[in-house]
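Case study 2.
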Amino acid sequence: MSINVSLKNVPDEIMQRLRQRATTNHRSVQGELMAILEEATSSTKLSVDQADSRLKELRLKTGDDSTTWIRELRNVQEENEWLKVKLLKRSQPFS
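Prediction:
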């Protein structure tokens, strides 16, 4: 048995974000609301151990990619700073 639910006085801003979310997920607004309700009322919350086991089953890597990216970004920034200093020194007249 299903029941009809009605929302009243939904602010325009929230409705706009809901429409955008529905479009992004290739759903109608009604379908998006159902997905949100299903997710919010779902009892399939995972413990940390369950999530860890699931990640291992899926063979997803949770390594240090972010650390590597940050180091690379820092290196590029340091190189850019070094080049700026070198260019500034070249552009200054000899004393």
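The first helix runs from residue 12 to 24.
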